[in-house]
């Protein structure tokens, strides 16, 4: 017996929400064939006594539709209007089927999780990694000590295939944090002004570097202040502790100001190097030197960000531990439900 025949009868929409030329509704479960035979009317003749996977029939189910017989149930393809879809679902629900989300049809192993996450992949690179997991990257993986260590290296990549790395740009006022965000993004996302206190909230900008999703977060300049600006400064300090990486921005023409508490992951960037030095830049020998205004050093700085965030990248077809949704913050492994932990990676 097909596994789908043992499930409750379910109907779900298999195509995205919104207007489209065609929409597909799936039906599966122990009562699926009975409901299909009751509701569907073939254009010519009757449905055969035995329905085989791969067969398709033109007919009516409140609208002109095509019925596809699948290995695990049926698909009904009709016009893509939202109300047509609602009508089809209601007909099956009226006869006792459960209306379920399409994700309920996915298996609960790592391949099912990869399918689910694939719909949310923000870049082609992360989508490709998820496709590898869906298409069997975890099959025949032998959990040797070397393999577990490699999976440990790739764990952070797995957590960010859907959720971007959060990179906070922090520093004193007027060092060019907003200009640097705009330069990396390639458009004017943040307001730039020479008046201190212009940025008072956290401003996120989604970008991709070498195919990796990153959210750049502009923050208020950190200085002693009061009122609304003080709240923005405190918000920036809190965000420093929560970010995946803090970029502390210094200005070449202004006396340097450093964080009161050094974040766990921080790199320094010296902006405005196209201006006359206002201090000895050699005090911070490891700082990346850039000019958000002219573009000098931005390519090298972007490459450094990637190297810091993704020190280990998976090879094509390689197994990657999948970081799951926030409500189940674990690792997906073959044969286990989402949220299970990979031994040694808790």
Question: What would you say this structure looks like, in words?
Answer:
The protein has 346 residues and is α/β, with parallel strands linked by helices. It has eight helices and 15 strands. It has a seven-stranded mixed sheet with strand order 3-4-5-6-2-1-7, covered by helices on one side. A hairpin with a 7-residue loop joins strand 14 (322-323) and strand 15 (331-332). Helix 3 packs antiparallel against helix 4. The longest helix is centred in the last third of the chain and has 16 residues, at 227-242. The radius of gyration is 27 Å and the shape is elongated. The model is unreliable at 224-228 and 324-346 (pLDDT under 50).
Q: What layout of secondary structure does this protein have?
A:
Layout: E1 10-13, E2 22-28, H1 32-39, E3 41-42, E4 56-60, E5 64-70, E6 73-79, H2 82-94, E7 98-99, H3 110-118, H4 124-134, H5 145-159, E8 165-171, H6 177-185, E9 203-209, E10 212-218, H7 227-242, E11 245-251, E12 266-271, E13 288-289, H8 298-309, E14 322-323, E15 331-332
Helix pairs in contact: 3-4
